Every structure is written in C-alpha cells, then in structure tokens.
Amino acid sequence: MLNLSSVGSKTEPRTFSYDWKDLALYALGIGATTQELDYVYEARGPRVLPTFAVVPAMEHLFACLGLADVPIASVVHGAQRVLAHQQAPSKATVTTTAEVTAIYDLKRFAQVVVSTDTRLPSGEPLWDTEWSVIVRGAGGFGGAPPPRSDEGAIPQTPATWSHEQITHAEQALLYRLSGDTNPLHIDPEAARAVGFERGPILHGLATFGFAARAIIATACAGDASRLREIRGQFRKPVWPGDTLVTQVWQGEPGTLAYQVRVKERDEIVLSNAWARVRVDE
To answer: How far is it, in rounded angstroms, from Cα 99 to Cα 101?
Structure first.
C-alpha cells in the first residue's frame, strides 16, 4: 500500500559535483557523436546538455519513492520533464532537493509524481525536473486521476523537422555509467524476468536524451542553451541498436511538439511530448 500521506514530503538537500568527464560520459550515453565536440571535448568546455539535469536528481527520485513506500520492482517510468533556468557551468557542485508532489489513482495503477530543484552554489535555480512513475497494481485507492493536458498533441500536418539517430548495441552500457544502474538495462536474465525476452532494454531517459539532441540539432541549430524545457511520455521500449526517428513540429514561436518512433518497427516510443526553446532574434 502506498503511503498517500507522503505527498508534500521533501528530501534533505544533497550536493552533487560534476566535471567535464561526467558531462562527456552523459553525452556519449545519449548518443553524442564527433559532430558534437562542444559537448564531449574538455577544450571546448564542454557545454552542458540540459537533460543532464536528471543525473544529480536520480538519487532524490529513489529517496522520494522510498518515502511513498513504492515497491521498486513494480515501477515503470511514465513521463519526464526537465526545465533549464540557465546554461549550466562546465564544472560545479550543485545542491538538489526533491518533493513527492502528487499520487494519482489510475484504477489498476498509481502514478507518483516527484519534482526536484537543483541550484548553483550561489542559490540561483539551475534545473527543475519532474518524474512521473507508474506503480503497477497500486491503484484503486479512491484517489483523483491525473489532470488532462492537450500539450504535445501532434498537428495533422507534416513535421517541420525529422531527425534520424542510430543507437548502438552498447548504448545502455554507456548510459548506466551516469547513475541508472538498474540491471534491466544490462542483465539478460533480469530483462527476461519482466517479460523482455529479446534482452535488456535501453533506459527511457537515454531515449529522452536522444530526443533532446534531435531537437537541439534541428530547432536550436545545435545550440543546447536554446532548449529551455522538454517533456515526454514513454510509450514502448527501445532496444540498443534501434534507429530512432524524432519528428518535430513548430508551433507558436518557441513552442514545439514532437514524437519519437523506432524506424525498424514503426512504433511510437515517446509521445505526448513538447519542448520550449529560446527564439533568437
């Protein structure tokens, strides 16, 4: 039984230090190539991809799930949001806190929402993240359903941009080194135990990072500082080696809708997805 009274509970502030090696490793984990040296080469900073925000937030997510008495073996990552308040420095010690912001009733499932706040040593806000976690078999407790939103609805028009990216067989092996060491993404037996006979799946947050890179490459002309906010809902698994096609639709100035599909199976794997970008004058 979930601890419904945990809503509003917060974690203690914790510091997290990173440098260029952490940034480069994360960038490689979400598919960065030799065409993106600004994000992997220390002589160029390196610059910080905004979705790196999930790395210092990871331990706080699990702390909040503990506060809510969530059985980790029953969780599925439902959706993710990242908001970047400013361009992050290439080396810093940041401080993060987190809060269990909501627990919703999905009848068969429950949805636990965790929000994090990461700040620079000066106290200035750097990143906010929001994690939507589906808990199997935990619904039906009489709670409210999650609010509905039309953000991320795909227009009935051709995409403004379409960007194809190849994931490699070792993609999950790289991504897990940034802190998400769930054996589901490396151990064939662990994958089979939860129904993935084909083998370990790619982290949803890696797919999310690939989508962010696609948006940066297209709508932001390669400048990650222009990507201010990104959100997406995970639909189906991705396996290392799959080809991802990110389709992006330009809406109002600075507002995008997007979706990610696996080319080989023509399956949408990330949807109800949107982003906000800085519009250069």
So the answer is: 6
Whether residues 209 and 96 share a domain: the answer is: no
Q: Which of 26-40, 80-94, 135-149 has the lowest mean pLDDT?
A: 135-149
Distance between CA atoms of residues 209 and 206, nearest Å: 5
User: Which pLDDT tens digit goes with each residue over 221-245?
Assistant: 999 999 999 999 999 999 999 999 9
Are 17 and 128 found together in one domain? yes
Provide the residue range defining the domain that includes 81: 4-136
Three-state SS at 207? helix
- CA distance linking residue 112 with residue 177, whole number of Å: 25
Query: Which of 90, 121, 136 is the last residue in one of the domains?
Result: 136
How far is Cα 227 from Cα 86, in angstroms, rounded to an integer? 10
Enter the pTM of the model.
0.96
CATH number reported for the structural domain that contains residue 73 in this entry: 3.10.129.10
> Residue 17's Cα: distance from chain center in Å?
20
How many angstroms from the chain centroid is the CA of residue 143?
26
Pick the closest to residue 48 from 212, 161, 259 (CA basis).
212
Question: 105 and 18 share a domain?
Answer: yes
Same domain, yes or no: 192 and 91: no
State residue 279's pLDDT score: 87
As annotated, the active-site residues are: 180, 185, 201, 204
Q: For residue 201, name the pLDDT band (cuts at 50, 70, 90).
A: very high
d(CA 171, CA 269): 17
CA angle 116-120-125, nearest 5°? 50
